[in-house]
Amino acid sequence: MAKGKDARITVILECTSCVRNGVNKVSTGISRYITEKNRHNTPNRLELRKFCPFCYKHMIHGEIKK
């Protein structure tokens, strides 16, 4: 049986390096990924190492507000 609120929510992960540095001069844009997380298992903000095409390497992507 389903509980009242959905435990699984959609979150957006954004590259922390691109945001901090104001993006490279050569390419414009910020790397973002869309994923899901279980609210009950991970109540705090999610951080994952993902590939950033603007930094050309794996960087930490943190959860942002919608």
From TrEMBL:
Cross-referenced InterPro entries: Ribosomal_bL33, Ribosomal_bL33_CS, Ribosomal_bL33_sf, Ribosomal_zn-bd
Pfam families: Ribosomal_L33
GO terms, biological process: translation
One Gene Ontology molecular-function label: structural constituent of ribosome
Keyword Chloroplast: yes
PROSITE patterns registered for this protein in UniProt: RIBOSOMAL_L33
UniProt entry keywords in alphabetical sequence: Chloroplast, Plastid, Ribonucleoprotein, Ribosomal protein
Highest taxon listed in the record's lineage: Eukaryota
Annotated signal sequence range: none
Location of the protein in the cell: Plastid, Chloroplast
SUPFAM superfamilies per record: Zn-binding ribosomal proteins
GO cellular component, one term: chloroplast
Record-stated family: Belongs to the bacterial ribosomal protein bL33 family.
Name used for this protein in its record: Large ribosomal subunit protein bL33c
